[in-house]
Amino acid sequence: VAPARPGGTGPAMLRLAPALLARLARPWVPVLRRGAAAGGEEERFVFPEYEPELREAAIAAAAAVPRRESGRERRERRERRERPPVAAVGRPDPSVPPSGVSCSGCGAELQCRDGAAPGFVPAEKYRSLSEGPVGLRGAVCQRCWLLAHHGRALRLRLPPEQHREVVSAALRRPPRHGRGPLLLYILDLLELPDPVLPQLQGLLGPDVPAAGLLVVGNKVDLLPADSPGHLGRLRQQLAAACAQAGLRGTPLVDVRLVSAKTGFGLEGLISRLQRSWKCAGDVYLLGATNSGKSTLFNSLLLSDYCKSRAPDVVDRATVSPWPGTTLNLLKFPIINPTCDRIFRRQERLKEEAAKTEDQLSSEEKKYLNQLKKQGYLVGEVGRTFQQQKSSPVVDFDPDMLSYSIDEDPRHSPKKNEEREEFTYNEVKDARWCFDTPGIVKENCVLNFLTEKEVKLVLPTNAIIPRTFILKPGMVLFLAALGRVDYLQGEKPAWFSVVASNLLPVHISTLSNADALYEKYGGQEFLKVPMGGEERMKEFPPLVPQDITLKGIGATEAVADIKLSSAGWVAVTAHAEEKLLLRAYTPKGTALVVREPPLLPYISTIRGARIPGTAAYRTKKPPSQVENLKTTGRR
Q1: Is the peptide bond before 472 cis (omega within 30 degrees of 0)?
Q2: 23 three-state secondary structure
Q3: Which of the chain's termini has less CB crowding within 10 Å, N or C?
Q4: Could you give the percent of the chain with pLDDT greater than 70?
Q5: Counting Cβ atoms within 10 Å, is residue 278 exposed (0-12), middle (13-18) or buried (19+)?
Q6: How many Å is the maximal CA-CA distance in the chain?
């Protein structure tokens, strides 16, 4: 981190200061530069904080121009300080018994007795819904409403053990249809090795063994392709993680790579389930918090895996970056994959695979381009079996025309719209797909963050790797959530950061690192945590762990240093080069050295060295679309 230069704050600098400060007010968002890299295969992105002329000018301008805090900034600072998850709004009524109806978003039982308990609906809203034509069916609790419409998390008195108890109780039910369930375990690839997977055996009862385990590696769309065949390598690493988890008694059916958000790999997953599992028993979606279970549940609900009428009857699950959104079981009925249905589905897939991007409609192209901006791997989930909806019948009311010129028209009362429900015959022998509450990860940095900080830390768009070349005596900061010191080594080494694009990365020296953290922790410079000195007082201190590595080549990383759930740093060093590093994470969080690394060639996804800095210019590899015929154009 370069200090502000003395002098150089003349009138020209003062005139430029507002523009520079405005640009650097959000310096962590990569900016697309027009003019792709050679061959047009990669887009070049710029993180402005690594441009020395912009950074030094902004620092000098900020030092030269005293700046008063605006009213908006004061309000935001006050909100950050005062804004943990919000409390319930509306009055409870302890005299009203629980409803026995589940929230369609999270599965909790709807109630108006306790605002701090799951499933709370304000008493006045609860009564108005109860008196309606369909009652509370299809209603959502206040927590789901706030998450879906305002992105706010409601403070709940819910111990982490309760999630585990709900899942364990569901898995220990007596087997239906003569056999145990299929476990569809959703694993966040960014979290390998998954901390919850080894605990899966403890959730199962000895009397009700699972019929099989299918592990799904989710969020593959966020990871750039560091080399040809990277998906096969990721799948091998996922299978190895399953073997290391020590699961016994539950046969591993398959491992798959998908993106529940962009649809990549989902059609293949559905085909695999219908071929191997058919409709033999129930299916449970399991996994840690924030692994994407509810997003996958919603995608399967709009696919060939559920009954054709299910999307009209079953509400979609609430999806939020806040950990532990789902509080109880949600479900939809699985369609029976008969030979005729499988044939019709395969015909649809063949027809769609023969299309080119140019043959898509304007709306399909727009949606596809939107997904390309969000992930490197994009797919489409279609539906072969859809319930044909009958055209609405228009009732003719002659009384609507029988009023005089002096009268207002008399509107006939509208018929109550009845909510669609399954018939008895549709579900009497149905097999169900259940979405379960996420198992809370222990020793996770997300447990110490506010809702606003969680949104910055969890990546939602394609991750753009940032590579730096460091000499011994240099330090890398990932926000204020992690730090890697290069203590000893003969030669410079490459450190590639794979984390949310919204988290800043800063390079310092060993002599200045502690002072930098003390000065900028809680400030915009390090971004997360946010809230100033008061926030840092309650945030756990960084604790060190020494790491020794041995390089294997200038283009291949030797290991990943995983800084809890904040991201990781891939370390690349010359062959046989010994490195002594010291990594820091907040006290009470897990620091993992992952060998082999998840993306060993990640340091090659970079542009030219930025003069005067340790940073390389960044690049974003192109997105790939599944199940579309390529046109040969780049």
Answers
A1: no
A2: helix
A3: C
A4: 72
A5: middle
A6: 98
- pLDDT tens-digit series, residues 542-582: 999 999 999 999 999 999 999 999 999 999 999 999 999 99
Whether the CB-CB separation of 581 and 571 falls below 8 Å is answered with yes
Strand partners, 494: 469, 572
Q: What spatial distance separates the first Cα and last Cα of the chain, rounded to whole Å?
A: 39
Q: Which two tokens stand for residue 499?
A: 């984390």
| Distance between CA atoms of residues 482 and 498, nearest Å | 13
Q: Where are the domains of the chain?
A: 89-157, 160-382+423-442, 451-622
Sign of the torsion angle spanned by Cα atoms 253, 172, 180, 267: negative
SS3 of 245-309: CCCCCCCEEEEEECCCCCCCCHHHHHHHHHHHCCCCCCEEEEEECCCCHHHHHHHHHCCCCECCC
**Can you tell me the distance from the alpha carbon of 378 to that of 263, in angstroms, rounded to the nearest whole number?**
6
* CATH superfamily assigned to domain 160-382+423-442: P-loop containing nucleotide triphosphate hydrolases (3.40.50.300)
CA dist., res. 26 & res. 37, Å (int): 25
Closest CA to 309 of 398, 223, 383, 401: 383
* Pair of tokens at residue 59: 């620092």
User: Is residue 202 classed exposed, middle or buried when 0-12, 13-18 and 19+ CB atoms within 10 A define those classes?
Assistant: exposed
Residues 6+ apart with CB under 8 A from 440: 160, 163, 164, 288, 289, 323, 324, 447
Structure tokens at 9: 């704050």
Of 425, 350, 420, 432, which is closest to residue 384 (Cα–Cα)? 350
Residues of the chain under the 70 pLDDT cut: 1-89, 104, 133-134, 147-163, 205-209, 249, 315-328, 387-420, 424, 630-634
**Which amino acid is it at 176?**
R
H-helix or E-strand containing 373? helix 362-374
Distance CA 59, CA 299 (A): 47
CA dist 296 and 401 (Å) reads 51
H/E element holding 475? Answer: strand 474-478
Token pair recorded at residue 521:
């922790």
What's residue 188's pLDDT?
95
Q: Rounded CA gap, 136 and 122, in Å?
A: 13
| Two structure tokens written together for 45 | 């992105």
Amino acid, single-letter form, for residue 352: E
**322 Cβ neighbours under 8 A, 6+ residues apart:** 85, 147, 153, 451, 454
* 3-state secondary structure (DSSP) of residue 154: strand
**Residue/partner pairs of 410-416 with CB below 8 Å, 24 or more apart:** 416/133, 416/134
Pairing of strands 482-488, 474-478: antiparallel
d(CA 336, CA 43): 45
pLDDT score for 389: 53
Distance of alpha carbon 229 from alpha carbon 586, whole angstroms = 35
Q: How far apart are CA 407 and CA 201, in angstroms?
A: 73
